[in-house]
Structure formats: structure tokens, C-alpha cells
Amino acid sequence: MREFVFIFDLEGVLCDNTHRLDFIKSGDWEAYHNACGGDKPYPEMVDFLRQMWGMPSDAVVSTARNERYIQETEEWLRVHGLPIYKCYMRDRLDTFQGARKEVEVKRDNLHFIQADYPTATLIAFEDRDDCVDMYRTAGIQCWQVRGGVLG
Predict the structure, then answer these.
(1) Cβ distance 49 to 59 under 8 Å?
(2) Which CATH superfamily is domain 4-144 in?
(3) Who has the most CB within 10 Å: 29, 38, 66, 150?
(4) What is the mean predicted confidence (pLDDT) over 6-11?
(5) How far is CA 59 from CA 96, 115, 148, 151, in A?
(6) DSSP characters for 38-69?
């Protein structure tokens, strides 16, 4: 069993999604997610993630991105050499129209992570204020990487 589990958000933490934020403004979530392969990684987060590799730890992703995009997500992680053990994502049936808020999806993801790693110390890396608050309220150490609501 792993001693530490590092939980990384994707957009705004590992990957720079600013080139596709206009899709959110127009409400085109499908186009937003379809363009995820063009994201650039944040170099400092990539360096940090690679440095901790080899510790008695796992690195996982918790994202509100729909699991319909698991192949694109795993390919992006592979192309950029990010050693992520598992991706916890929005359920495939949770549609874009009337979708649950990101913080709700990540709260559910956290329950799955805690079930998979019942004795590990969890540390989260997040950019969204509401998600940071959710982790901290749950007693999880959370480092806010970039502040804000989106991006």
C-alpha cells in the first residue's frame, strides 16, 4: 500500500487550457473537451511530478472531465511523460447539459480515492477555490496551484 497519494487536477494544474476557454464561454463543452489534446503542460508541475516518482507514492488525477475522454486524457499524460497511476473522472452518463458542478464530481472522486487508498496520506493540487475548500473541509492537505474559478 502506498504511503502518499498525490491528487492532481488537470485543467489549470497539470495542463494549460487557456487556448480553449472560449468554448466554455459559448457553452460548447464538447468542443472544449475535444480540444484537450492541444493543452501544454505546466513545466513546474511536470517537474514536481517527475521528482516525486519513485517515492512510496502514487499520483492520480481527479477531474470533472467526462470519462468519455479517457483515451485522450491518458494519451496526453503519456505524451508528456506524466507518471499518473489512475484517472478519476466524471461518469460517462453525467451529461454536459445540466451537469453537476465540478466540486460535486471531485467530492465523489475523493470518496473513490479514499476507498482505493484507505491508509494513505492524501495531498491534493488544485486551482479552483471551491474545490480547494472541499478538500480542506474533508481534512485533505490541498495546495492551491493557481487561484480562481476557471483556467
Answers:
(1) yes
(2) HAD superfamily/HAD-like (3.40.50.1000)
(3) 66
(4) 95
(5) 27, 15, 23, 21
(6) GPEE-HHHHHHHHHHTTSSEEEEEEEEEEGGG
Cell of 151: 483556467
Q: Is the pLDDT of residue 151 over 50?
A: no
Distance CA 60, CA 106 (A): 12
Distance CA 113, CA 131 (A): 15
Residue type, 138: A
- Residue-wise pLDDT for 10-44, tens only, equals 999 999 999 999 998 898 888 998 899 999 999 99
* Domain positions in the chain: 4-144
**Residue 135 is which amino acid?**
Y
pLDDT tens-digit series, residues 82-117: 989 999 999 887 765 556 899 999 999 999 999 999
* Residue count of the chain: 151
Q: Residues near 89 by Cβ (< 8 Å), separated by ≥ 6?
A: 61, 63, 64, 65, 66, 67, 69, 70, 73, 109
Give how far Cα 116 sits from Cα of 5, 54, 101, 145, Å: 10, 20, 23, 25
